[in-house]
Queue: 2 jobs
Job 1
Amino acid sequence: MYADSARALFRDDLAEGLALLKPLVLPPLARPDGMTTHDYAFNRLRQAIMVGAFRPGTSVTIRGLAEALESSPTPVREALRQLTSIGALQFLENRRIVVPHITPARFEELISLRIALESHAARRAITHLSERQIEKIAAIDDSIETEIRGGDKVAALIANQAFHRMIYTANPDPVAMPLIESVWLQLGPILGIAMEHVTELYVVDRHREAIDALRRRDEGAVADAIAADIREGIGGFDQQAVARLLRLAA
Amino acid sequence: MYADSARALFRDDLAEGLALLKPLVLPPLARPDGMTTHDYAFNRLRQAIMVGAFRPGTSVTIRGLAEALESSPTPVREALRQLTSIGALQFLENRRIVVPHITPARFEELISLRIALESHAARRAITHLSERQIEKIAAIDDSIETEIRGGDKVAALIANQAFHRMIYTANPDPVAMPLIESVWLQLGPILGIAMEHVTELYVVDRHREAIDALRRRDEGAVADAIAADIREGIGGFDQQAVARLLRLAA
DNA sequence: TTTCTGAAAATGTGATCACAAAAAGAGATT
DNA sequence: AATCTCTTTTTGTGATCACATTTTCAGAAA
């Protein structure tokens, strides 16, 4: 596996990183026609980071990624630069490019920021949601449970994100969504750790509550449900367990 | 002025754009030692957009900026790509790079997002603020009034941003600050329009209220003061007047 | 005057190269 | 065995170039 590429894709955790990256980033997402190399690289990396393919502290290289994506340094560097702008990566002083480390305090800040942003976005979405859209949201919620019961952690995570995204993007001017995804990206690497250590997934979310509140067009109840949902867990992961894990890692 | 450069820096509003850009972006900020060309370009453009140097819809070119910044396309393109990630610019389908247009609805969304984000950040900052820092914040508030009375719109704007930034960055893990600045960037172009049309600046902010609340460590009062401050105006600009202006422009 | 057409210019994209800084590694020294 | 030193390799940076697409604009046609 190492000899496959002349250069290392990752400096640390090479095997694990590759193992996670390969299915997530390399084969599945074919490049659509008309998509630039840069956009392709950006979206692949973004998606990989958001679902926890990279552990905190992992460092990547421009040439390594260019090779993995069968491209050249220029578009990859642009993609990496963009990812730093949204907190997904970090260019260090010594020119190393790493996935940011997360302290327990930072983790708490990010969760609290998620609550502020997403309860706000949920409130703002209510008036724009049609009945049909709400039913779609409920359908996505069902698929989350299916994935959790099936034990596919990454799929559960993605479905959970889709659930939240579907609500917030009902707003025709979804200015909050990019910021919310920035926070998700910063939490991604933690989820990667969680996925390695947590074997049991729990279906304890507040999605039903949120959906009911959406149907009633009850702003306060929606915001409360979303806040509680975030506070308690992330797509099958128990929040407290993740926090504990983080303290151990630090 | 036009003949100075072989290529146009802006496609539209060339004269106005240059007039605003020159003092803000070109001469003053000298490139510090050790700062890369890319970082320099990024920071200059970012600052220029944040204080309203570019009107909505203005389009820029990579080569034009590279020439203006005495650099080459590569680092400038990276800077522009980063700016799109934080909502300051937009790469259109036809490969044009523009400052995003803003609809009245989007404007309202951004203001409401500012309130959600900044009242949250203010709450989170309270426990980390020392007495000395609060006095510094009060000093910045004084300088805002000075600038407003002096009639320097850009300086007033920058001082106002410094006031808010000083509060939010007291938090040792300021995860919200980059997101807040992203919103500021998206509002920047509107401020540019406001600065062109508004002649009178008002010193009607809630800063004193906010500072008092900070001294009392009163979370709710701080959040309320910040929310009211944002709702009513931006660094000397009356919010309602700006909204009216925007409806006219649309 | 307006609209259409085709050539010329401009522009974003991505690959490549030279360069300096940093990291890695081999071998000697303590 | 641990530390230091010097060479080699790797890596980010920025400039340049070729290419395809888009825009611009002059001139013809209606």
Note: Residues 2-98 of chain B form a domain with the Arc Repressor Mutant, subunit A fold (CATH 1.10.10.10).
Job 2
Amino acid sequence: MESVSRAVRPAAVSMTDVARHAGVSLKTVSRVVNAEQHVSGAVRETVQRAIEELGYQPNGAARALASKRTRRIGMIAASTSFSGPSAILDGVEKAVRQQGYSLALVRTQPDEGYEVQHAIAQLIGQGIDGLILSQPVGPDNPGIQGPAGVPLLSIDYPDARHSAGEIVVGTDEVDGARQAVNHLLSLGHRTVWHLGGDPAWAAARQRARGWRETLEAAGASVPEPVFGDWTAASGFAQMQKMLDAGSPTAVFVANDQMAIGAIHALERSGRSVPGDVSVVGFDDADESAFLHTPLTTIRADFQDTARQGVFRLIEAIIGRDEAPRQFTLPVHLVIRESTAPPRNGG
Amino acid sequence: MESVSRAVRPAAVSMTDVARHAGVSLKTVSRVVNAEQHVSGAVRETVQRAIEELGYQPNGAARALASKRTRRIGMIAASTSFSGPSAILDGVEKAVRQQGYSLALVRTQPDEGYEVQHAIAQLIGQGIDGLILSQPVGPDNPGIQGPAGVPLLSIDYPDARHSAGEIVVGTDEVDGARQAVNHLLSLGHRTVWHLGGDPAWAAARQRARGWRETLEAAGASVPEPVFGDWTAASGFAQMQKMLDAGSPTAVFVANDQMAIGAIHALERSGRSVPGDVSVVGFDDADESAFLHTPLTTIRADFQDTARQGVFRLIEAIIGRDEAPRQFTLPVHLVIRESTAPPRNGG
DNA sequence: GCCATCACTGACAGCGCTGTCAATCCAAAG
DNA sequence: CTTTGGATTGACAGCGCTGTCAGTGATGGC
């Protein structure tokens, strides 16, 4: 029993074994395995049968070495369990697998001092055909230079920071913010305050931009925003700070997690939601509909965003290059019970 | 600029290039790269300098092919963004990377009809030195047979379902349940109801077992439990079902997410928490301290659990086999505001 | 009915590295 | 000064597959 852990790998059958068993050449087996043309139906079947009988599994390392394609995609993702990034990881993995690739994952953690460049080097060394970036790119990570020749997909909001060849897909953060702010303004609020996410993330910057631009377009005053780090704890702390600075009647919070903390701070200060203060979140997390006060929020299809990005990336890998390189997917407002008209007409 | 996407990979330098540049043999470079012995200090330095000057990066595929070790670990993880599994993924990735391995991730989704055996086959084909399983193993997945000779780590609660050679680490679900139930009993509740997680998961089964055994040990009656699927939505629905069946004064819910839904259902039915009903969750999610009613819950160090498991797995891979193969890590109760004595003494 | 054409098929040379084993060198021992 | 043994170094043969190119029949045109 204890031998189970020893490498009893049953002397894996190789392509040569299959060839011998099927009575054909190595190359013909290779053709069948890779679904190439120039193999007659009869031979193809014989080989296929041999493959099944022997339980043949192609050796990825040998394949990669000979073909210089690993059929593996590397992903560098910030380490969070928040709804958005989580859904993105999910969508990426699924799409990658469906395209016949596998996923090599590296997560970055802010506190870890583990820089992106190093993570990239490691992935490239292991061998990847493409690279996906789903993590903050700010002044500190100036543009992830030279991903060493592999196509790069950033799941992010397209902006000037991205290089020319890069594929960038994201959700329409700016429009989401616009919808949130307009919803609050249309309820009668004079203006809307903003509790932003970690500004290292483009998503946080773009949500803040959308908020600001919408207020300006509406001729509303623009209160000083505060920024957290996406956690409920930071939402709690930053909302307290905001309350020290003024008395909002409406707040657009950059994600649902922080909104939970923010609402907690509002209630602890004696304010009710939405009675005294309306709150809109972002992401539509799983639990947001079931909070004490079900949360009005912006829903984005992160899974689909990821999927589209992966398709685009694989097109670039195999040399087909038609679709636009940078685009965003639409989002929409989900109205629940955390928003209402201001108590006395604003 | 558009050439960025073409594979302009700068004709990667090979070990041969380094050898030539350093004036030594291929094998000597190999020794330096792999930190083997039998290389004099002077030669080692020369080679190291050559490596840096040329920016040499070992080719993973070639290495894997020649050595039959990929330095890659495969992980099959259920696709959820819940706090526990999420933290486990995080911990695994970090530990794997710190040990110099890379992580190939496959996520399974219940609705997808994508079975574990197939995922394993794919990972083995790509080449992995070890396999990690973090996903439900129930009657439907009878024991993940024959991982083809690679050491297997299950992050799960050790039980009979696991095979002899398997490494199993988990958190002490049973003890967590015990602490939750005892806390509620000690507040004066006559008994404690249970809203369980998805029974496909060992965690759900063990939490239910701990709950039942603790009640029995205390001589309390054991109400019929209900089970959800870890989501807030299922917590909401199943709590309504529980309320149809009886009038609990205390409920132990199998995770925080479901607890949020459960509390929502309680409040919608006119009950207050903890006034009418006390609720204990499990996992201590990020937002649990900031809910309208901060949640009493069980905290487990999932990251550490994952880390310990990975260390153990790598020991098995390199053939060192000392530490016990199956163990659990302790958990502890975090008391917040969702629990209180029953309204009229039970 | 003969040659160009095309669909198949296979031989062979590596891909970049590691494992094995033989060769070499140096210092200490005899 | 020669012998012995350990430490260092290198030559060479693959790992399992793909890419290239040559070879083989069969098909079709004139």
Note: The first helix of chain A runs from residue 15 to 22.
